[in-house]
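To the wet lab folks,

You asked to see what we're planning to order before we commit. Fair enough. Below is the target structure as tokens, and below that is the sequence we designed to fit it. If anything looks off to you, flag it before the synthesis order goes out.
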């Protein structure tokens, strides 16, 4: 996605952590992890919460995963011969087909918010990596001013909530998932935390 504004500094620590986690998931799901990203994963720590335990799981697996193995796993999951084991798109999860109405709705919401696809990105905008990046950017104001919680809730409920938890569960259980099984577990937990948090936000 295209960055359109300087990010403000008056973001709460909690929201910055939320944005950082969305962005990190986006990085992991956009391309095979580089050695630097694997090192970052290996250095993660977590508390005793379900998400904290999942983050610790990511760290443990990353410590013993070589970049070449991570690339093979990513390709088997998301690229494959013709297609990967998973199709990480909202349209597919919600309709069974690619490039359907959920993508059109997302493009309308992106246009209204001034979010544009970067020129070097060719994936449909409703892929999970882009949606994670969009949420992270909206929280901290990367596409303008920080988006209020009720508006975050609206976007999340339209484009992420109905399917992302299912995707992360599928990623966790996928035949080719090893490193990405831990990513799936962390993503699933994070989506549930976001769902619970947004339930307390008035529309």
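Sequence we intend to order:
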């Amino acid at each position: 996605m295209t960055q359109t504004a300087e990010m403000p500094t008056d973001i709460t620590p909690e929201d910055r952590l939320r944005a950082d986690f969305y962005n990190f998931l986006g990085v992991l799901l956009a391309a095979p992890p580089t050695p630097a990203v694997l090192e970052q994963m290996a250095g993660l720590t977590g508390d005793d919460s379900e998400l904290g335990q999942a983050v610790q799981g990511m760290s443990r697996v990353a410590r013993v995963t070589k970049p070449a193995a991570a690339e093979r796993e990513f390709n088997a999951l998301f690229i494959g011969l013709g297609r990967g084991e998973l199709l990480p798109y909202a349209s597919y999860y919600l309709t069974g087909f690619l490039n359907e109405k959920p993508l059109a709705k997302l493009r309308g919401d992106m246009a209204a918010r001034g979010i544009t696809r970067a020129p070097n990105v060719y994936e449909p905008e409703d892929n999970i990596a882009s949606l994670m990046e969009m949420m992270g950017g909206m929280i901290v104001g990367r596409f303008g001013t920080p988006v209020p919680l009720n508006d975050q809730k609206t976007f999340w409920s339209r484009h992420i909530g109905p399917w992302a938890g299912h995707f992360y569960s599928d990623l966790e259980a996928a035949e080719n998932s090893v490193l990405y099984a831990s990513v799936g577990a962390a993503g699933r937990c994070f989506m549930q935390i976001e769902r619970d948090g947004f339930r307390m936000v008035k529309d």
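Structural context that might help your review: The radius of gyration is 16 Å. The longest helix spans residues 179-199.

Thanks,
Computational group
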